[in-house]
Design goal:
Helices cover about 40% and strands about 20% of the residues. With about 500 residues, it is α+β, with helices and mostly antiparallel strands. Strand 4 and strand 5 form a beta hairpin.
């Protein structure tokens, strides 16, 4: 038996520690621990409710736009203006969040996850003229391929030429991401931590110049998604077909829904689905946060709108700063797989077309979506769906029409703001008393996915996805990292390997 400790795995909220017990070449037990206390909820108490828009975006420098959307919807609800937002305001919020999510999904695949499958050292034998590959070849010759190495030495399966093409796509994706960030800044004011969304709508007014500037960048992103991103994700799934079986997870997916159309339904549906894609309607009141294994004062599991954040470091039996969200007592996975699967089960026509096409390309059934490769595929399909919708929303803007509704700050109120961030279901809850924030709770995607065990002993979604996976070499557990990164908790930066008795066998820095 070997106990593998990865500490930390960097993620959107801080540091993630993973412990897995391997016996007989298989993970028998996994524990996911959030190692940093966030504390944003406590910082907000006593402040002007509108400060939540500014402060909650600082939870994460990777997805601040999603927190801004959740926070502003929370304030819309509390201020009573959710149904008064002009069409321009709804559309521009979608454009800000959507442009951000598209570049964020591209970031995840190329700059965080793809290098688990691509052998960057293949550039050492490159003989062409691509300036990026030529530069990397020079670095490789000098032994200076950081940050790509040191790394786990996975079972790299692509031929050298394909590896080189994929490395070139890594560099191309950096430029594409920049265009996406520029699109966010055009309508949101700046990146990161947008100032463009406010209760009742947005601050910017749509103009012909801004629409044209957004559109030409969008067309470049759409081309990259269709001609580079989707083919690369399908190539990984074909070349690593076993990862359509590995990391299946808890089998229950939850989505809040996202991207409301003016006067219509959301782009992504809300609800829950199981592995048979049976749809269950969402009842937000069934969501609670359990702290049995978390470093917080012990209390009964609570609905987030009534929740508290009372840290208790060193609490006996606890092993994480993450709480354990549960839906009607059940463990749920959130993320692009969830909002694609829920929308598929809800009968969204365009979602069904794209999912069925992708599964035909792979010769796989819908059950294969519940896997490492399935999560990557769902993320790519979500990216394409959002990019298509961005053009539709952009062309629906009406220059000269209002983009925000007036509001009054209430003396006492409560509100909830839900959306689908790039990493999954994101919710904010607020309580206002005497015009100030009396309570605020954020339940973020990685809290759902990376949660510790609850009071019933149920492992979280990531812990379940790791349990049962093969690990060929405990000294080089690349399988573990591949599963973890399919949930998009960002990049592991240090790995420690321990014996069951706790002594360190080796220490590796991982690119």
């Amino acid at each position: 038996m070997a106990r593998i400790v990865i500490d930390p795995v960097t993620r959107i909220e801080g540091h993630l520690k993973l412990e897995v017990v391997v016996e007989g070449g298989e993970v028998k037990e996994a524990r996911s621990s959030g190692m940093l206390f966030r504390g944003i909820e406590n910082i907000l108490r006593g402040r002007d409710p509108r400060d939540a828009l500014v402060i909650t975006q600082r939870i994460c420098g990777v997805c601040p736009q999603s927190h801004g959307i959740a926070a502003v919807r929370c304030l819309d609800d509390a201020f009573g203006v959710s149904d008064k937002i002009p069409a321009n305001g709804i559309l521009m919020r979608n454009l800000i969040q959507g442009a951000h999510d598209v570049q964020d999904h591209i970031l995840h695949f190329y700059h965080l996850a793809a290098l688990d499958y691509i052998d960057v050292t293949a550039v050492a034998s490159y003989e062409g003229r691509d300036p990026v590959l030529c530069s990397l070849k020079d670095f490789a010759a000098r032994g200076e391929l950081g940050p790509f190495v040191p790394r786990y030495e996975g079972d790299y399966r692509f031929p050298a030429q394909t590896n080189r093409e994929l490395v070139a796509h890594y560099a191309q994706a950096l430029e594409i991401r920049r265009k996406g960030q520029e699109m966010v800044a055009l309508l949101g004011g700046k990146v990161p931590h947008s100032v463009g969304v406010i209760p009742g709508g947005v601050t910017e007014q749509p103009t012909v110049d801004k629409i044209a500037s957004f559109l030409w960048r969008l067309r470049e992103l759409q081309s990259f998604i269709d001609n580079v991103y989707l083919p690369d994700v399908l190539a990984v799934a074909r070349t690593y077909p076993d990862y359509l079986e590995i990391g299946r997870g808890c089998g229950l997916l939850l989505s809040y829904g996202a991207y409301p159309e003016p006067g219509g339904e959301t782009l992504f549906a809300a609800g829950l689905v199981d592995r048979n894609l049976v749809l269950e309607p969402l009842d937000v009141k069934k969501i609670v946060e359990d702290v049995s294994s978390s470093w917080y004062e012990q209390e009964a599991a609570r609905y987030p709108g009534d929740g508290e954040t009372k840290p208790q470091p060193g609490k006996a039996g606890a092993y994480s700063w993450l709480k354990a969200p549960r839906y009607a007592g059940r463990v749920c996975e959130v993320g692009p797989l969830a909002h694609i699967a829920v929308s598929y089960a809800a009968g969204r026509t365009r979602v069904k077309e794209l999912v069925d096409w992708a599964l035909r390309e792979l010769g796989a059934g819908a059950d294969r979506l519940f896997s490492v490769a399935g999560r990557h595929l769902a993320r790519a399909l979500a990216t394409k769906l959002i990019a298509e919708a961005l053009e539709r929303w952009l062309l629906q803007l009406e220059p000269g029409r209002p983009a925000a509704a007036e509001y009054l700050l209430p003396r006492q109120a409560s509100g909830m703001g839900l959306t689908e961030a790039a990493r999954g279901a994101l919710g904010h809850w607020i309580r206002i008393e005497d015009y100030k924030i009396a309570g605020y709770q954020c339940v973020v995607p990685t809290t759902w996915n990376g949660s510790p065990r609850d009071g019933q002993g149920q492992p979280g979604a990531l812990e379940q996805a790791l349990t049962g996976i093969p690990v060929k070499d405990p000294d080089n557990p690349f399988e573990v990292v591949r599963v973890v990164r399919s949930f998009d908790p960002c990049l592991a930066c240090a790995v420690h390997l321990l014996t069951p008795g706790g002594s360190r066998l080796s220490h590796l820095r991982v690119g």
